[in-house]
Amino acid sequence: MGRDHPYLIFIRIAAVVLMTGGISFAFAQKDPPGRVARINYSEGNVAYAPSGEKEWTDAELNRPLVAGDQLWTDKKVRAEIQIGSSVVRMDGRTRLTVLALDDQSAQLSVTQGTVYMRVRNLPEGENFEIDTPNLAYRAAYPGDYRIDVDAQQGVTRVTISSGTGAVYGEKGQALPLGGGQQISFKGRALEKVNVQESPPQDNFDRWAAERNRREDQSVAARYVPRDAVGYELLDAAGEWREDANYGTVWFPQGMPAKWAPYRNGRWEWIVPWGWTWIDEAPWAFVTSHYGRWAQIGTRWAWAPGRMGLKPIYAPALVAFVGNGNSPLLIGGKPTVAWIPLAPGEAWQPTYPATPLYVSSVNANMPPQKEGSYAYQRNPDALTAISLDDFHRGKPGKGSWLHVAANALTNAQVTMPPRIPDYAKGTAVAARAPVQAPQREQPTVPEIQQVANSGPTVQQQIEAQGRAQQEAKAQQQKLAGQKRIAQQMRIAEHARRAEQKKQAERQARAAEAANAAQAKRDALKRAEQAKRGQAAKRELLAKRAQAQKDEQTRRSAHAQQVEQARRAAERDAQMLAQQRVEREAQQRKVAEDKERAQRDAWQKQQQALAEQWKRDQQAWDAQQRAKAQRGRPDLRKSTPASGDPEVWQRGIPILPPGRTS
């Protein structure tokens, strides 16, 4: 059976500790926060002052923010800070300080300007608070909030777009606020100076709403929890694909040749995590501190894995490589080398942490294979820089060293470089040159003792003889030194003459070489100019042909449009003519029908009139006949009632109808 990796052994021991009731000891030490903040987006340069420092510099997008850090946005500068799944947006001329930031609380101080908070998730027991010079606002539920601080007037305006929260005064008095409210407070006793319901939006509100919309539509949020800081920047920098081994992975686009994860950036010591990787790519924060990297074919892909709902931040998911306990030597100089962790490889922090914290960072990873790391002896995955550049935080881009494959034969995973002295809180003083100790001045008793113990005569004669011998030897030594010096001067003169001749020969050779090079450069420039002119003519010809083709296309398109328009007009005229003819035909049919009905009615009326006339004539004839027989004239006398002969006669009743 193969030997287990030390990190696997550590994880197994942690699991045993948790299962056997040793959790009380594990939690005796405090873990670093698993939630961090970063400048997620900016319009213009944001000024930044690290914790404990007064000098301001330009802020880095991929540097994590910790308690004590300060930010300043100048006029017409806006910035967005992501804190877990929440964001804080700063308008121009705003000063913000991170007071506290861990897994349970996020406390910010705004002494001037305007901030917009979008609290996406606020579990029970967590606090999200903004402190101003005269009050503190704490969100109670997820929502959108805005704080405006007028430092000169001493007024803080709180606007609740959605959600609920409360403002707190100097003596602990609290005032709950709900959605749609806007209240301005002056002083530290929550004195209201202005109250407004549903205030109108300004440009900053609309900018924040647009940022919210982009955040809500992020594609990366489908595969990465929103608590993974920097996830939405992956949308514009790469693409997501499915892999049979690692699930959903993300491929960066437009990367240079020989690029590898954790290569273009720098290291910085940031408390409480220690060595922290700060990448140069704007999108690389989430890929540097969460998930793992896999080499699929010739490309690198980031595998987020199954992080869970609340991923844990790590300063850099890498393993440092060396020759046992000693660093790699490149060109005889000590170097620092590291590799990205592959999916399934456990990460071990170099700072104190509980087993639960370590298991949370390495949670939901595929099982790790026994043996060495996947990229431990892969020179394409390894990045190395000199130890001095590492400590100075020099960017790795352009300064990383090439390591041959045979140099990694005995490479092993090792600990990172030791903590620098400045990170321990001690000053590093320059070493002074070592000086020989000087004898102190003799005291008065010592002088008296020397005076009382003078030399004898014999000792004085012997001393004079030794002094003469030493003087003679010194003269001989000086004469020898003079001869040697003379010989050295002659040799030096000859050497200088030879150097002068050699320099003249080199100068003539250099002049000849420069002349030849100048001639070649002139020919090369002439050739390049010739090729450039030819390329320019070709480009102009292509542009002219393209313009001609474009004009031809536009002309053909215009003709097609004109033909279509004329055809449409002809069709419209034809349809109009057909409609007119159809209406005329319908009118003619209606007129013919009406004429036939009128003729029939007239004929009926004429027939009735003729019938009436015949009846009248018959009746008149009948009356004349009766008169001749001596009967009374019925038209002049009232007929007797009930006489059928009278009531059966009379003017016929015509049916109703047209009169003409």
What's the short story on this structure?
By secondary structure, the protein is α+β, with helices and mostly antiparallel strands. Helices cover 36% and strands 23% of the residues.
Helix content estimate: 25-40%
Distance between the termini: 123 Å
Structural class: alpha+beta
Rg from Cα: 53 Å
Q: What is the tally of helical segments?
A: 9
> Low-confidence parts lasting 5 or more residues at pLDDT below 50?
1-28, 425-457, 645-649
| Molecular shape | elongated
The description of the largest β-sheet is: 16 strands, mixed
Which key phrases capture this entry?
660 residues; alpha+beta; Jelly Rolls; 16-stranded mixed beta sheet; 9 helices; 27 strands; 23% strand; elongated; disordered N terminus
Explain what you see.
- It is a single chain.
- The protein has 660 residues and is an alpha+beta fold.
- Among the domains are: 6-25 and 225-424, no CATH class; 35-216, Jelly Rolls, CATH 2.60.120.1440.
- The chain is 36% helix and 23% strand.
- The chain has nine helices and 27 strands.
- The protein has a 16-stranded mixed sheet that branches.
- Strand 15 and strand 16 (191-197) form a beta hairpin.
- Helix 1 crosses helix 5 (355-361).
- The N and C termini lie far apart (123 Å).
- 24% of the residues are buried.
- The model is unreliable at 1-28, 425-457 and 645-649 (pLDDT under 50).
Can you lay out the helices and strands and say which pair or pack?
Layout: H1 6-19, H2 23-26, E1 37-43, E2 46-49, E3 57-58, E4 70-73, E5 78-83, E6 86-90, E7 94-101, E8 105-119, E9 127-131, E10 136-139, E11 143-150, E12 155-162, E13 165-168, E14 174-177, E15 181-186, E16 191-197, H3 203-216, E17 238-243, E18 247-252, E19 265-270, E20 274-279, H4 284-289, E21 292-296, E22 299-303, E23 318-322, E24 329-330, E25 333-340, H5 355-361, E26 383-386, H6 387-392, E27 412-414, H7 444-452, H8 457-628, H9 644-647
Parallel strand pairs: 8-9
Antiparallel strand pairs: 1-5, 2-3, 2-4, 4-7, 5-6, 6-8, 7-8, 8-11, 9-10, 10-13, 11-12, 12-15, 13-14, 15-16, 17-18, 19-20, 21-22, 23-25, 23-27, 24-25, 25-26
Helix pairs in contact: 1-5
